[in-house]
Amino acid sequence: MPPKAAKAKEVEDVQEEQDVLQALILADSFNERFKPLTTGLPRCLVPVCNAPLLDWTFESLALAGVQEIFVLCRSHTDQVQEAIRKSRWSQPGSGIKIAPIVTQDNVFSVGAAMRDVYAHQVIKSDFVLVMGDVVSSVRIDEVVREHKARRKTNKDALMSIIVKEAGASHRTRPRGETSVFVLDSDTAEVLHYEGVAAVPETTRVSIPREKLKGHRNVDIRNDLIDCGIDVCAAEVLSLFQDEFDWQDMRRHFVRGVLTSDLLMKNIYCHVAREGYAARVKDTKSYAAISKDVLARWAFPLVPDGNHPGGQHYEHLRGHRYISQDKQVTLSRTCKVGNNTLVGGGSRIDDSADVAASVLGADCVVGKGTTVRDSYLWDGVQLGAGCFVEHSIIASGVKILDGTRIGKGCLIGSGVVVGPNTVINPFSRVSSEPPEDDDAEDAATALGPGSKGYLWPETGDDDVDDDFESEANLRYLRIGADNYSDEEHSDDESTASTFSSPASSVLSLPESNTSGQLSTPGLALLGDGSSRAVEFESEAQLSLERAYNEGHRIEDAAIELKTLRMSSNVEQRQVLNAVVGFIVDKIELVEGNVPQQKAVINKIVQRWGPLLNSLGAGDGEETVELLQKHCSRPKYPPLFAHVLSAFYMTDVVGEDDIMAWYKDPKSKEGDDESKAAYARECWKWGGQLAQHLAAQESDDDEEDDDSE
Amino acid sequence: MTRPQMNFTASSSSAAGPTEFLAVLIVGFGEELRPLTSNTVDEPSPKALLPIANKPLISFPLTWLEEAGVTDVLLLCPESHANAISNYLSSDASSSAFPTLAITTHTFPDAYRTDPSKGSCTVLKEFANKITTDFIILPCDLVPPPSLPLSALLDKFRMDTDGLILASLFHEVPSDRASLVPGDPLEDPPVVLYDPTTETLLQINDDGSDDPEGEVDVRMATLWSHPRARLTTHLSDAHVYVCRRAVLDTLSAHRFQSIRADFVPWLVEIQHRPQRRKQWQHVLGAMPRAARATLEHSTSHMLHARNVAVGGGRSEPSSRAASPLGGGVRDGETHDGSLRCAIVVHALSKGVAVRVNNLTALMDANRAALATASFTPSADTAGVDSKAQIAATGVLIGASTRIAERSTVKQSSIGAHCTIGKNVRINSSVIMDHCVIKDGAKIEGCILGARTCVGEKAQLTQCFTQPGYEVAADETLKGEKLDRLDEAWGGDEEDEEDDEDDEE
């Protein structure tokens, strides 16, 4: 090599070394998963362990040696700019230059934002593209080096996606939004990408055969966490400029590049084995990442050592963190469980119990209140005897005494809830009325002293993007089950099928049964008898509806079976409810036996088969239940008619009637007070039994087996 | 067929306990090896006896079995091949070669050759009642390298305790393979999906090779239980399967034809298909008693360990300890057997395994075997003229073969009882027994079936001849499959007809 050229190359190298490493943070989520928490707060400033998300992202980039950061923001730009000003990384001497880029309000996607950045002409060379919700301790600088080295030999290496190795069902891979990467085993080149949604369920990944050409081994990875950190060539921006319909970074850009026949560009993955990286993409991953930080998986990003918000915490045994900046008041009898962070100036009162949660600054937890797996932002006040689980409560919220917040609730800032109210799981409450303006009346839903609006369950699925559909987002909510099989029958679907207010209050702990909660029928968890009462009322409602709306037998049966499962009661209970329902539906026609018979036949023919389709019913039991229900004034004569109608419709067999008749217990019934009626029923039944017995001798033997 | 007399070693080892595995050796017709396996009027040409470095093909799997300590062999072969094969097995040379094997031979009709609905599954099903233990299915055409003992596969099967139903062997194929037979492209290996960590075979896509534009579908359910799966196009199925006895009971599920192309891919997918699983659970699910007992006494349950490995992630600590969601226990598969199929991958770097199921493979296997051979004149080769030029290495010459003066032999194997004239050049070829090659003929890159007769000064390049074929004098042929039957086998039909006339 001639010396001149060598020198030139050296100069180039030096120049490259001196290139500032630029990073671009897209500090907007372009979706509404955190609403109503984010109505007055940009998503990037949502506090994670009491530090704004943006600070965590800065921290991650600072670790990587980034020197220049552009923050692209759209909503609440003043707040973002303020946060940047206040951040310790924008202080002189931090060695990092942070500049905001404010885009227009009509930028609604990553694609549009990238086009906007391109127009600003600030990115000069390879840069790090980060979503504004990243918490990471991965050594990005190594990836940048790797990327640059690759660029030297292959100009078409467009991008390196940083992914973190984990398990398939890791908690920061929420079911609703994961991805499958198909990588070359040796070079980690991305050959195919598939976004995986829960609804509509992604059932298969189709890999074009031609992609396999030239690759000996190809890994299909369903165990990677997409960290949302990409090392990109500057060219990426111009590609977005060329392709106007690209919106999403992964599903459009990555797939677009991979499937394009013209571009011939390559995308690589860097599979990080060390370090931590995850994105706060939704409330579920918000909870997961908070937990990871508390449990120190994200080390060195932990509250006590290197808190991005500049706060100081004392790390106590069991990963409890107590603020050292401002006095924390803990009552002698309160309980602070593992993995809990208590912000400065907070107060926890007597016998309150806080576990696996984060409390912001100046929070108050009232007497006897329980907080589980929840995230309370600054200045939240919980009254006495409250119960909060798996929820996020924004700053300044007041929860009045005796209120219970079900799992998965998001309570927007400034809301007051309670007292003595039950907020259903997965509710969203805001201080401003939601856009659709058909919010439920605050006082009834949120309690007498409340101030706020309960958001309706938006059933409409007119979103273009499958990933943002209501059904899919269900999996991305805090408190949602990740991979259990029961998720399809969670509280909500039951509640919507049997629209009874009772169903959601089933699991109240004993301490909270005060005030309006003592209504009969509202049950304590694990109490069998009250569960039965609960079931009875539900079954009654269900049958009424079936009767009034003329449901098909199969539908009614399914509804009852589901109900039986969810309340976990015996089969007998179900039969009891149905027999009772049939008896109740019979109009009494006094003194006119044929007409009475006609009425009975009509009812039994219509609804008798329901007993059969509920299945496994013991005929004798049915007769016995019928006897029980007929053991009241005026009904015993009906007993024989109903029984014979049952017999005619094959609900009970001859054997069942005989068996019942011969059982000595049948004579008396099981209720002392109604013994007289029971006996009368038995007598009537006896007549029928004898009649049948007489008939039997004429009939074929085979008839016996027909039931 | 009668069982050859067992000697003392065999009986003493079987007295130690019941047979662990029965080897089911299926001998096919060798359609892909035509014309070498085309039947002649008077005699069949069994695939099993094609030579690899002058040793019959079938001796390789038999030796392999013997090395692994398997004693019982059920040999299933076409009716017409039975005599030739059993002659070989009971001939003096081989009974000393396989002293510990107890070989039982059964036959299936020759009509299966032309009936497309009858495949290896038909044969297996027919003789299922002869199989009472776990068994090994193996082909007669596998030439395994010394680095790949059968016991590696057997051990994989033995050690697994979570309800494995099958262990299969896949060998890596070189990426730069080229067909040695003109007009006969090599078949691409299937697209195989497996989990390298747990060595589980997940999916075999064998159908789409004719459609390069197609897609390989992978079910998400598979990826949830095996999040790190590997897709490869460089593994070829060695057709060696160690199976639970119960596997035979699933043969009735469909009208399977081929074990490799239909039955095994079907079996492999049972583990991921809830419905199929449910249907066959009771048939396949029963874990062998020994394995269950072992499990009960183990402190660190293998099943548990597997789940952690599958779902819990490897180097990511949080999934293991902090996350309650780590396990892969999504479908309760811990309670029943996993019904999974294991895979043993034999890497190319450790030695080349070949399945001799096409002419190229036969040629390759011979060349590989000849590379280590060396020719030393002995009493058996007294017929080789001292003026013939025989390369010192890479040449094998069978007993009582005569080679006249000024002939050259390089990189070739010549069978027994051949007569080779003067000035003959033989290069990179396989000449089977009883061939006659007249003066001045030139043979390069050919495989000549037994009793082939090559006329004077004929020139053959990359030709393959049916046993007993006669090449006329002065004929020049290149890239032909020479077959006496009135059938077109890729080659030029007219030529063949001409040949036929000559012969009549």
From TrEMBL, chain A:
<dbReference type="InterPro" id="IPR005835">
    <property type="entry name" value="NTP_transferase_dom"/>
</dbReference>
<dbReference type="InterPro" id="IPR044123">
    <property type="entry name" value="W2_eIF2B_epsilon"/>
</dbReference>
<dbReference type="GO" id="GO:0016740">
    <property type="term" value="F:transferase activity"/>
</dbReference>
<comment type="similarity">
    <text>Belongs to the eIF-2B gamma/epsilon subunits family.</text>
</comment>
<feature type="compositionally biased region" description="Low complexity">
    <location>
        <begin position="494"/>
        <end position="511"/>
    </location>
</feature>
<protein>
    <recommendedName>
        <fullName>Translation initiation factor eIF2B subunit epsilon</fullName>
    </recommendedName>
</protein>
<dbReference type="InterPro" id="IPR016024">
    <property type="entry name" value="ARM-type_fold"/>
</dbReference>
<dbReference type="GO" id="GO:0003743">
    <property type="term" value="F:translation initiation factor activity"/>
</dbReference>
<feature type="region of interest" description="Disordered">
    <location>
        <begin position="483"/>
        <end position="518"/>
    </location>
</feature>
<dbReference type="Pfam" id="PF00483">
    <property type="entry name" value="NTP_transferase"/>
</dbReference>
<dbReference type="InterPro" id="IPR051956">
    <property type="entry name" value="eIF2B_epsilon"/>
</dbReference>
<dbReference type="Pfam" id="PF25084">
    <property type="entry name" value="LbH_EIF2B"/>
</dbReference>
<dbReference type="GO" id="GO:0005829">
    <property type="term" value="C:cytosol"/>
</dbReference>
<dbReference type="GO" id="GO:0031369">
    <property type="term" value="F:translation initiation factor binding"/>
</dbReference>
<keyword id="KW-0808">Transferase</keyword>
<dbReference type="InterPro" id="IPR003307">
    <property type="entry name" value="W2_domain"/>
</dbReference>
<dbReference type="GO" id="GO:0005851">
    <property type="term" value="C:eukaryotic translation initiation factor 2B complex"/>
</dbReference>
<feature type="region of interest" description="Disordered">
    <location>
        <begin position="426"/>
        <end position="466"/>
    </location>
</feature>
<feature type="domain" description="W2">
    <location>
        <begin position="529"/>
        <end position="702"/>
    </location>
</feature>
<dbReference type="Pfam" id="PF02020">
    <property type="entry name" value="W2"/>
</dbReference>
<dbReference type="InterPro" id="IPR029044">
    <property type="entry name" value="Nucleotide-diphossugar_trans"/>
</dbReference>
<feature type="compositionally biased region" description="Acidic residues">
    <location>
        <begin position="483"/>
        <end position="493"/>
    </location>
</feature>
From TrEMBL, chain B:
<dbReference type="InterPro" id="IPR005835">
    <property type="entry name" value="NTP_transferase_dom"/>
</dbReference>
<comment type="function">
    <text>Acts as a component of the translation initiation factor 2B (eIF2B) complex, which catalyzes the exchange of GDP for GTP on the eukaryotic initiation factor 2 (eIF2) complex gamma subunit. Its guanine nucleotide exchange factor activity is repressed when bound to eIF2 complex phosphorylated on the alpha subunit, thereby limiting the amount of methionyl-initiator methionine tRNA available to the ribosome and consequently global translation is repressed.</text>
</comment>
<feature type="compositionally biased region" description="Acidic residues">
    <location>
        <begin position="489"/>
        <end position="504"/>
    </location>
</feature>
<dbReference type="InterPro" id="IPR029044">
    <property type="entry name" value="Nucleotide-diphossugar_trans"/>
</dbReference>
<comment type="similarity">
    <text>Belongs to the eIF-2B gamma/epsilon subunits family.</text>
</comment>
<dbReference type="GO" id="GO:0002183">
    <property type="term" value="P:cytoplasmic translational initiation"/>
</dbReference>
<dbReference type="GO" id="GO:0005085">
    <property type="term" value="F:guanyl-nucleotide exchange factor activity"/>
</dbReference>
<comment type="subunit">
    <text>Component of the translation initiation factor 2B (eIF2B) complex which is a heterodecamer of two sets of five different subunits: alpha, beta, gamma, delta and epsilon. Subunits alpha, beta and delta comprise a regulatory subcomplex and subunits epsilon and gamma comprise a catalytic subcomplex. Within the complex, the hexameric regulatory complex resides at the center, with the two heterodimeric catalytic subcomplexes bound on opposite sides.</text>
</comment>
<keyword id="KW-0963">Cytoplasm</keyword>
<dbReference type="InterPro" id="IPR056764">
    <property type="entry name" value="LbH_EIF2B3/5"/>
</dbReference>
<feature type="region of interest" description="Disordered">
    <location>
        <begin position="310"/>
        <end position="331"/>
    </location>
</feature>
<dbReference type="Pfam" id="PF25084">
    <property type="entry name" value="LbH_EIF2B"/>
</dbReference>
<feature type="domain" description="Nucleotidyl transferase">
    <location>
        <begin position="25"/>
        <end position="162"/>
    </location>
</feature>
<protein>
    <recommendedName>
        <fullName>Translation initiation factor eIF2B subunit gamma</fullName>
    </recommendedName>
</protein>
<dbReference type="GO" id="GO:0005851">
    <property type="term" value="C:eukaryotic translation initiation factor 2B complex"/>
</dbReference>
<dbReference type="GO" id="GO:0005829">
    <property type="term" value="C:cytosol"/>
</dbReference>
<dbReference type="GO" id="GO:0003743">
    <property type="term" value="F:translation initiation factor activity"/>
</dbReference>
<keyword id="KW-0396">Initiation factor</keyword>
<dbReference type="InterPro" id="IPR051960">
    <property type="entry name" value="eIF2B_gamma"/>
</dbReference>
<feature type="domain" description="EIF2B subunit epsilon/gamma LbH">
    <location>
        <begin position="387"/>
        <end position="462"/>
    </location>
</feature>
<feature type="region of interest" description="Disordered">
    <location>
        <begin position="482"/>
        <end position="504"/>
    </location>
</feature>
<keyword id="KW-0648">Protein biosynthesis</keyword>
